[in-house]
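Entry:
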Amino acid sequence: MQKRYVSIWFRHLLADWQLIRRPELCDIPFVFAAPDHGRNMITATSPLAASQGIEIGMRAADAKALCPGLEVLDDKAGRTTILLKGLGEWCVRYSPVVMADDFSVDGLFLDVSGCTHLWGGEREYLKEIVSRLKSKGYTVRVAMADTARCRMGNSSFWKSNSFDCTRDAYRSPACVAARSLAFTGKYTG
């Protein structure tokens, strides 16, 4: 049996989780921040904050200067891990092998070998995952490939969900970038 792997990347995991809990924040740019060496550093951004130039790793004070209406929320250590664990348990309906993706901080890794036919094929399988997570309030990118590195690269670097990941995807720019990351530790493309 051919091995197949899926990567689910939660592009704005903490922001989506917060918007599910507090829908009134949908029109307010917000970030999560945690103390780091005496400075409050941004650990996650909402899509609205990101569209205004706020980035992860930026100092919260600098971000507030760029975006005066920015709401800064306290990030708690381990919150992402807890969220991914819960989402991983929910994803067991799609594969018996689900784990947090060690490469992508905000992602899940599924070994779906032999599972996709239950949903009518790979395309329908991925569409089901995306639509169910979207209905719960999460923004995700998914990819499927023959190798773990390719599916990680495809979900992280492609601009949209990659429903057609075949052996030819191994040569895709996203997959090449993923392989270079595995060797160098940073994106070289």
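The longest strand covers residues 30-36.
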